[in-house]
Amino acid sequence: MTDYSKRQLKALDRISKKISDAESHLAKIEDSVPDKRHLVPHNMKLLRTSSLF
Fold first, then answer.
1. What mean pLDDT is reported for the chain?
2. 5-17, pLDDT tens digit by residue?
3. DSSP labels for 8-31?
């Protein structure tokens, strides 16, 4: 393999690693977003009254 081909493969490997890292980072962000349904004010009363029983 020529030096140019080796450099191209290394560059492609670096790019694919960066893409993989970015995808896993986005997945972590999406998983950490709180569930908004439990924070809506009309659900707060339901949550408070249901905990009494």
1. 78
2. 999 999 999 999 9
3. HHHHHHHHHHHHHHHHHHHHHHHH
